[in-house]
Amino acid sequence: MSHSEILEVATQIADDEGLDAVTFRVLADRLGTSPMAVHRTSGGIAALRHDLVSTLVGEAVAAIEWPEEWRAVARTFADTLHDLLMRHPLVLEAHRQAALEAPGADDTSHRVVRAFREAGLGDEQATYAYATLHDFVTGHVAIRLSRGDFGTVPAERRAVSVYADHHDYDRRFAAGVRLILDGVAVAAGAEARS
Predict the structure, then answer these.
(1) What local confidence, expressed as pLDDT, does residue 168 receive?
(2) What domains can be seen in the chain, in order of their start residue?
């Protein structure tokens, strides 16, 4: 049993049942070994959970093909983070507890802030623009994962909802990102004029 085999099984467990479900006993049962063998190979449960999140985030970051234009950089970041969190809810769960420590994660944040500076924002505004985009993505995914499909909401509730006529999670996400980026463009224009 290798560390990568443990991570693969741990990912499946965490995606299906949450990060807290990743225990040595559960891993050992799935791998057909003893909990102590999993412990020895993984270096402890905290280390294993950290490695799990770090690996998933690092792989997602490494796969990004960054464009040049500032809007495209920001959109690429938003789409990549959205897709990662939807595919692996355990990353969102871990991110609620602490900043994500993974290869390339900080570089990604700085790249997006640089893109907003290239759009014309000052340092502080560029940092807050990044935070706004980041927080929108994580909030959108958290709501989507916790509430599920709008079709499962009771018909009476759906009928009075503000989303009764306009509820498509993908369109909602795309519109939110577009509105944030349009706001960045307006703010950058205002900074340039002042």
Answers:
(1) 80
(2) 1-43 (1.10.10.60), 60-193 (1.10.357.10)
